[in-house]
């Protein structure tokens, strides 16, 4: 997961969501024994002085919150998403707030969406105050894809850092409404078989992966429903939700899978997208 010499990179703008993201990120940097880079990318010269003051204010709050973390401040011109993506190649984690200046409340910002789609390192999008979601497990969505395997490794390492456990969730589609002409009893029998087989498979995957992470407790859970809804609901009691960049249903041309995109928009906790 983390290369210790690489910093935690944080995108800062003029809005409160990025302040909360920065405070979450500096706590994460402290756990990782990493430096932190605060970056404001300005595409409007008339805002430069205001953004410079904003950057200094956020940096000051972060230093008060975690004085042991070395924090550098960077104000540069350009397109915010493109510059953050470029800098992500030298970072171990990129953190952003959930929205920027052009998005209404409740929407995921265009910059956050772009960096989650194209960044070279894992990306965490922080929703809400940094003081929320400081307990609970690391929840990871698993679907047997290569990306979800990488997400599981990230989640196990995050559990070590946060001194918590891992909950791996595999969601099987609920077909009851898709085939209403099929007898419910037949669907229920098949569901029990599918559930038991999926749970056994996921349990084996966890057993194999946790051998490299002694001391981490990981448990498997199989749910019936739709992945975005089920993972977002699980995120309400999670410290962090981790998903792969693209799952088994992702077509090669998609830059960000539908499940990853959906939980970024709907999960209440910090969401990390891992390639």
TrEMBL record:
Alphabetical list of InterPro entries matching this protein = Rossmann-like_a/b/a_fold, Universal_stress_UspA, UspA
Family under the similarity heading: Belongs to the universal stress protein A family.
Give residue ranges for domain UspA: 6-127, 137-275
Source species? Saccharopolyspora phatthalungensis
What is the protein name given in its UniProt record? Nucleotide-binding universal stress UspA family protein
Q: Name one Pfam family in it.
A: Usp
**Which Gene3D superfamilies does the record associate with it?**
HUPs
Entry superkingdom: Bacteria
